[in-house]
Amino acid sequence: MRKWNFYTTNEVKPCGWLKRQLQIQADGLNGNLDKIWPDVRDSAWIGGNCEGWERVPYWLDGFIPLAYLLENEDMISRAKKYIDAILSFQKADGWICPCNEDARITYDTWAVQLISKVLVVYFECSNDERIPQVLHDILKNYYSLLKNGTISLFGWGKFRWFETFLAIDFLHKTYREDWIIDLARILKEQGADYNDFIDLWKRPVNHWKFETHIVNLAMMLKSEAVCCELLDLPYANHAESLRCLLDKYNGTVYESFTGDECLSGVSPIQGTELCAIVEQMYSYEHLYAYTGDDNWAERLEVLAFNALPATISDDMWTHQYVQMSNQISCETFRGNPIFGTNGQESHLFGLEPNYGCCTANFSQGWPKFALRAFMHKDNTIINSFMIPSELNADGKHIILETEYPFKNNAKYKISSRDAFTFVVRIPSFAENVKINGTTFSGDKAILDIPGGKEIEISIDFDTTPHFKARPNGLHSVQCGSLIFSVPITYKACMHEYERDGVVRQYPYCDYELIPQSNWNYAFCSEELSAKTNDVSEIPFSSKMPPVAIKAKLQQIDWGFEERFDIVCAKIPKSTLPISDEQEMELIPYGCAKLRMTELPFAKK
Questions:
Q1: Cβ neighbours for 108, distance < 8 A, ≥ 6 positions apart
Q2: Quick one: pLDDT at residue 206?
């Protein structure tokens, strides 16, 4: 049973650095994709002749909440234009995807699952009274086709069946009709059971498979949580055991897994697809809400504050398809790439490097995370993520002023018509926690808020930078939820061109990042000290990082991975120092586009 409920864009608004980050997204690629990219601008979903499957729904999944969070009337109007067009093509029997009736039997219904989820997002933002009936007709038609055997799950739909449960849950609460639960049962019966695939994760092979596809796995983690209540099943916490297994054999320093495009083993020079990052964030949001387990919240923070900004340019006009922990160059591979099943340009920053799914899908990351700042149940509100936000719901008003995760303090201004219980999740790494100057210990601060009064609550704590052991004798530096990297200066080479009818021109062109500074370092001291700076207009700025860690390093003969000259060796050739000790500033992983994150200690 869900422990915490989500608020909507009408109730939660971003503030401070978070609002600036969302505005950068609105001013960048996501906020303009319908103007420049054929697969959205001319999509078959709205009557055009371009892609009519997942890309418009993916784009809307982030664009819609972004528009409403920022209260941007132009973006809201454009979102409605797309929804109106999509609804106008719905068939009399409920089918809504751009597909001829005689082709439905071969149509991968992942698109049905995805557009259903997006319509729920739109309804929660807009309260458009048409949506419940439209969704009812879509899923009733889907149920009929599956029930009578006209269609069955295959391909992506078979491996993402649980995504439909987000819409099924909404529909069941609205209509309470028996067929809705029967649809849920059919989907689970025909869908893939990931518990059957775990042996494939232990020794990833260089072969494309649905069972090891990184985005499928990122989505899968929430599957049990979103379906157990609807199907009246006990919750066995499969997500934790599956995540631990994935982490053991394919884990990364930023709480995700290697997958370029399928699982790639434990390695700092293999990639992780951007779609997987935002989908894993979304899974962790639901896992935290359903279980109340703080581990999911802390893992989500690491993804949001590190992996997400690291793989998108500062202006959010370009992105990578895959990122690497030790990423010394983003140049096109001249021969076979290091990646398992991705192409030569997958790690470039561009419009649609390798494949366009991430171009459309990365947009959900920040807006949905912003919506999870507060959650509620009964007469209790929890501040689940200490990000600058304002809540205004049910006569309760909370303003959270903070620059966390860059600085460890928060001020809450609270007023309420009625008394309620306010809970603040305290990170496990927080030290010397003080609430209004009084020392506090525990993982949650539980505060009784009186009605009819205005009160202020301040929370301050410390975090200590520390080394975190990584496989193969390497180490990373972490402080709170932030991971730190040795930044590599680079020259950005811009490429403007047209390919397959898609134009790349500034600012939505492609960039190769060519290293201009040394990267072959090892730690030579366990001394670490933190230094805070102002949080700039670009929160995760590569030029003005908001915090840094001072560390002592020496150069070593690291070497390149065999057969490559733009990829460092997975394991250094030698850890003997070849330079004097020098003090350097490590910057947040999310700020460093070229970086070394997992390093050895130099031999004495």
A1: 53, 154, 155, 156, 157
A2: 86
**503: which strand partners?**
498
pLDDT band at 1 (very low <50, low <70, confident <90, very high): low
146 pLDDT above the threshold of 80? yes
Instruction: Tell me the C-alpha distance between 336 and 341, whole Å.
Output: 10
240: buried, middle or exposed (CB in 10 Å: 19+, 13-18, 0-12)? middle
Strand (E) or helix (H) holding 173? helix 165-175
> Where does 28-160 have alpha helices with state H?
29-36, 38-41, 55-69, 73-88, 110-126, 131-147, 155-159
Among candidates 251, 262, 146, which has minimal Cα distance to 197? 262
- Counting beta carbons within 10 angstroms of the beta carbon of residue 467, is it exposed (0 to 12), middle (13 to 18) or buried (19 or more)? middle
Model confidence over 206-258: pLDDT tens digits? 899 999 999 999 999 999 999 999 999 999 999 999 999 999 999 999 999 99
Count of Cβ atoms closer than 10 Å to residue 497 Cβ: 10
**Cα 407 to Cα 390: distance, rounded to the nearest angstrom:** 19
Q: Cα–Cα distance between 414 and 424 in angstroms, integer?
A: 13
Pairing of strands 502-504, 497-499: antiparallel
Which of 13, 58, 7, 50 minimizes the C-alpha distance to 215? 58
Contact 504, 323 (CB under 8 A): no
Closest of 313, 218, 302 to residue 258, by C-alpha: 218
b/e burial code for range 65-99 (CB count within 10 A of at least 16 → b): bbbbbbebeebbebbeebbeebeeeeeeebbbbbb
pLDDT of residue 305: 98
Residue 471 burial (C-beta neighbours within 10 Å; 0-12, 13-18, 19+): middle
Handedness of CA 298, 211, 244, 163 (dihedral sign): positive
Look up residue 444 and give its two tokens. Answer: 């949650």
Query: For residue 490, what are the β-bridge partners?
Result: 515
Task: Report how far apart, in Å, the C-alpha atoms of 448 and of each of 402, 418, 457 are.
Answer: 21, 11, 12
Strand pairing category for 272-273 and 595-596: unpaired
pLDDT for residue 604: 85
Whether the bond between 405 and the residue before it is cis, its omega within 30 degrees of 0, is: yes
pTM (2 d.p.): 0.97
